Amino acid sequence: MNSKKNKPDISLLVFKGTLIVVVFLLGGFLANSGFAPFKLIEKGLKDTEKLAEETTRQRPMLLDKGIYKGDGVTIHKQDQAYQGLTVMQGWFPEGPQARLVDMDGNVIHTWMIDFFGIWDKPEHIYPKRNIPKTPFNYHTMGLAVLRDGSIVANVQNQGAVKLDKCGKVIWTVDRMTHHSVTPTEDGGFWMPGNQDLRKVPDDLWFLGLTREKLMESMGRYENMLLYVDANGEIKKEFSVLQAVADANFEHQIYDALQIRKGDPTHINDIEIVTQALAAKLDNINAGDLLVSIRQFHMVAIFDQDSGKIKWHQAGPWVRQHDPDITEDGDISVFNNRNYHVNLNEIPGSNITELDPVTRQARIVYPQAGQKRFYSDIMGSHQALPNGNMLIIESRRGRVFEIDSEGDIVWEYVKMYDKEYASLIEWAERYDSDYFSVNDWTCN
User: Fold this and answer.
1) Is 49 inside any structural domain?
2) How many CB atoms lie within 10 A of CB 222?
3) How far are the Cα atoms of 25, 153, 300, 408 from residue 178, in angstroms, in the given order?
4) Taking Cα atoms as reference points, which of 197, 48, 198 lies closest to residue 40?
5) Can you tell me the distance from the alpha carbon of 433 to that of 443, in angstroms, rounded to the nearest whole number?
């Protein structure tokens, strides 16, 4: 017997081992460098993971744990609260909707905001993987409520729709609109919108960012200010990214890109400059646009005709929402305050008011000894005619009204289920005679 036949060939083993190591290292290099097919495999895995997450979700996105007790109106001091009707928008146990409630919390009317019923072929959404797969994968934020009972609502990052009193679609804005809908005196609306990545100009890409990279992630980059007329037609649009680049906001752009490569501006509200505010500032006109740029912690005034930035203020708020203009021309802001800036304190948001001339800011609510509230994202507020204020604690499913002393005179709480709060993204109080509707019933 030849014993050599039973012994391994050492040179062959060394060759095979070396080949395996080389192939492994080469594969790692190619994968890290983004060469096909590794890039395609990675993208396929990410898309599959996202699809699995969306189709198996058991609750709506963005819900937070509930911390408040009660169901509906839990506080109502009739002599101190501003009486009227409150419209709320968000995700409730019944679905994504706007609801009209009276001071006792009775639901008078609802408008269901059904993405799938509004758009059967949403060709305007890009990249396509951002199209919701189930009702739990979209939410509604931004609402204008009209006297005839119709509404104009945003489906966040998907588009805007006008519904009649009974929920029939009147028109749609087939752009990726989001966050706010602001009525104008001529019957139109201002709303933010995401630009299709394929249409972003080549000279607006900051170094290291590409369409391809962002299409693989969140798919958002350039925010637009859109003016929509009463018939749902876009008549004017301004690029926020172009405006901030022209204004040389370099350090704000740098900081924003460190937080998130996509969506560096994140517009969350547009308000129309009033005569009272315009009178306080040089070169500012009534009709200009007061815009909240969340990623910059900034509110800025854009020219209504050119889209150029004419005035701005960064801070002292953090990741703010809903700047409003007071009767005397000051600027009131829902200051979200991220939990990272709370030191050893319990996280808390506040309402901050700014004098645009002196640039001095003060906290309106809560002050020392007053109850805290917190919404890490979203949130809004409304000054009421009697001096009270309505505050929307969005992620905790709570709307409450305070008087001039900071005492809570009305409160509405809504859970989504036993564990999570409803998501109340927007709310506003209307006078009891605001609507021209005599009968809210629908077939």
Assistant:
1) yes
2) 22
3) 45, 9, 18, 31
4) 48
5) 24
Centroid of chain to Cα 214: 19
DSSP state, residue 31: H
pLDDT per residue as tens digits for the range 107-141: 999 999 999 999 999 999 999 999 999 999 999 99
CA distances to 174, 290, 300 from 310, rounded to whole Å, are: 30, 10, 8
pLDDT tens digits, residue range 318-363? Answer: 999 999 999 999 999 999 997 666 666 667 999 999 999 999 999 9
- The proportion of the chain whose per-residue pLDDT surpasses 70, expressed as a percent, equals 86
Range of the domain at 20: 14-56
Which segment of 22-36, 192-206, 229-243 scores lowest on mean pLDDT? 22-36
Is residue 34 domain-resident? Answer: yes
Task: Give residues with Cβ within 8 angstroms of 267, minimum separation 6.
Answer: 178, 179, 192, 223, 225, 240, 291, 292, 293, 294
Q: Helix, strand, or coil here: 55?
A: helix
Secondary structure letter of residue 195 according to DSSP:
P
Q: Are 87 and 129 in contact (CB under 8 A)?
A: no
- The structure's pTM equals 0.88
Q: Answer yes or no: is 37 within a domain.
A: yes
Distance between CA 139 and CA 199 in Å, rounded? 25
Chain centroid offset of residue 148 CA = 27
Number of domains in the chain: 1
**Domain annotation covers residue 44:** yes
Place of tokens 């000054």: 383
